[in-house]
Amino acid sequence: MTAPTDNLRINGERLWDSLMEMAKVGPGIAGGNNRQTLTDADAEGRKLFQAWCEAAGMTLGVDKMGTMFATRPGTDPEALPVYIGSHLDTQPTGGKYDGVLGVLAGLEVIRSLNDLGIKTKHPVVVTNWTNEEGARFAPAMLASGVFAGAIPIDYAYSRRDPEGLAFGDELKRIGWVGDEEVGARKMHAYFEYHIEQGPILEAEQKQIGVVTHCQGLWWLEVTLTGREAHTGSTPMNLRVNAGFAMARIFEMVQQVAMENQPGAVGGVGQVFFTPNSRNVLPGKVVFTIDIRTPELAKLNAMRARIEKEAAAIAEALGVGSAIEAVGHFDPVTFDPTLVGRVRGAAERLGYSHMDIISGAGHDACWTAKVAPTTMIMCPCVGGLSHNEAEEISPEWAAAGADVLLHAVLETAEI
Ligand code: GLV
Ligand code: MN
Ligand code: MN
Ligand code: MN
Predict the structure, then answer these.
(1) Burial of residue 312, with CB atoms counted within 10 A of its CB: 0-12 exposed, 13-18 middle, 19 or more buried
(2) Which of 293, 365, 379, 409 could form a disulfide with 264, with the two C-beta atoms 3.0–4.6 Å apart?
(3) ipTM reported for the complex, 2 dp
(4) pTM to 2 decimals?
(5) 363 lines ligand 1 (CB under 6 A)
């Protein structure tokens, strides 16, 4: 296996143009994107990506979760493919780069190999995973979770969005139920290139994050049951206030995260009040808790404590409570050989780099269960992500894609 020692680069301008083209699909309200999974905008983004892949001479396969696999053949028909992947779906108020960069940088690697006339022994497959974000259908990384055998497909199909629409029905509606069995593909290796979504690389003035680990997470969904009553005429001592119990649980989650420093986070992203009227005490509150840390024992201890204290807070206020775990993965250690190739590529290309732990979840966290996997990161302005103002520079985007090209070439073998 020979490492490419020359100065191969992707075409940074073409990568940037493609990012800007994709950003026109499902525009947000503040300069970013709303291309949530299985919406019409998602379908349009998929069509555009398919057209680009086919123009680059690739063949598209689609599995029963709607995940897209575009293949550039290798010279050895027996060789397992090297995969590059990420996601084209976005948060409801998402940026232009979260996920999209990894998919389109994969495409740019293929376009560059075509330009350079380089053939690889192993096929190279660019992947767009369905529902990475989990904003519409929890959990996040749903299709890669099914691919890795961690989530049953029937459970995935049955997940519902806040309007009550089922994942399976919406996948059918947009016309992307493929015929491949999920997880039937075997991977020689998997690479994912992503923006950092945090402040470290920019602060440290590094162009490349060599991702060694990803922190684990629990997503909990809490249902509190109180009694609907008039906000004006119900005396304080007669209230069974699910909203107040929710507020106390919020504070407790913050406290648990703070007491587990360094390296733990916890927060609430979504709240549904019923009936959600300003002069009715809520009879029911459903809300989500997201806790993460790279340490497995700490992660599970945080979950246990939060569940116990939430139940106690509700009980003390006479409020009913139920907690369901709707998303989980353990902390991940990426493949040391592939991590070394990413570090070596950054070194060879003269890019400043540092080792980093991913704070966000990625499809790579699931592929790591079934194949040697690693990730590459580039900085993002102010560490801001899951925000329409998410920003990166064309130079940052290109540097990581260069590293991806080299690491993939070393793995797919010329
Ligand atoms: C997915 O984007 C996550 O990390 O929550
Ligand atoms: Mn992402
Ligand atoms: Mn995201
Ligand atoms: Mn993510």
Answers:
(1) middle
(2) 293
(3) 0.94
(4) 0.95
(5) no
